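Example 3.2
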Amino acid sequence: MAMLKSTPCSAIALLMAATVAAAQHQPPTRQLGPLVATSTETLGGNVSVRHFKSGVLVNDVQNRRLLLLDSSLANALVVADTTPATANAYSGRAAGLLAYRGDSSLFIDAQSLSMLVIDPMGKVARVMSVPRSQDAMMLGNVIGGASFDGSRIVYRGMPRPQFRGGFTPGSAPTPPEIPDSTAVVRVDLATRQVDTVGFTKIPKIKMDVQRDDNGNIRMTSQVNPLPVVDDWAVLSDGSIAFVRGRDYHIDWLRPDGSRESSPKIPFDWQRLTDEDKVVFLDSVKAQRERMAASAPGDAGGPGAMLGGGGPGGAGMTIVLGDGGGAGGPRGGAPGGTARGGPGGRGGGMTGPQVSLVSPSELPDYKPPFFAGQVRADQDGNLWIRTIPTKGIAGGPVYDVINANGQLIDRVQVPKDRAIVGFGAGGVVYLLAREGTTTKLERARFQ
């Protein structure tokens, strides 16, 4: 107290101002440390990894196989795949890999509703059923990564559309209301008890349903390609971090059940004028057209519509006949309509079409991140892949946040690479694409 009494008010004000300025300082962007290993095995474009001292377990989702690589990322041992060569089947495309007790891992196969406990040698120690069959897809890391906090699996709940009204012959049905937030829950593997730990804001999808003169029902999804969303991750100490996109701060749920919020993370906010919004939407439409031209039938499908991983997410148009159904956006020829339905009145669906919100619905400031871009390393930090606010050469830039919510580093990875996992002691795993080839790389944080 004596120091406070003897310190002039102006000096205290300057000290407080300096403290605030220091807290808001954004460290310079630096390059990730050197690459130390590259896999000899070619992988698909969707990969997650589990690091061990002797190697790494790789979930190659696109090729539906689980591999164990040694410390040099070579000598692949197939743990599970779709062939009879292994005793363990990789049955579906929805499968997740997460750290479990000690050095063991959980491989969650949503289609078979099973969880394989795998030891560091790639051996299956035992098989468990998923705790809740209705959540198998979310446990399988399809949308939002599940994590183990020491006794429970934490994962994002499935958004539940609200269906209102019914179907009246001769009129279009009322479209479902898609929620703009969803719960993050955790399930105790011993008791199978589920509790909600928080909520996150997710990309909002608007649905519009109309009936044309031929009796076909046209359902269009309208998507915001630049949504303001939240994300979350579980730190190595069991803390759950909810990263808020609106003002870029973190709400914490600590292992002891206490909750706290950390200050806003420094960020170079970029204001979007009305003209900027129009230019951005035009660029997204052009990107979608290029994607549709190079891979017809794929662009704009449900993954792009719901994933929110980048600005390419756009809506799709589905046309249904009276009482008819649709199998998905890849079911017909591009731009064509698969006819069906009673009385030959038509039905089926068209190829995917871009449907974006109006410029006025874009945010006034470019958000700091897209959905699914927050990861926790094994050293107690969060890595957040940020949306660039100005032209930056090279690969994506990640904000590194410590367990107190402080921005301690900004790291840029090489071009055509993205972080897919971590190891203890500053090990970072990258998925690298060169032309049509995709491989796994290991680098050092520093």
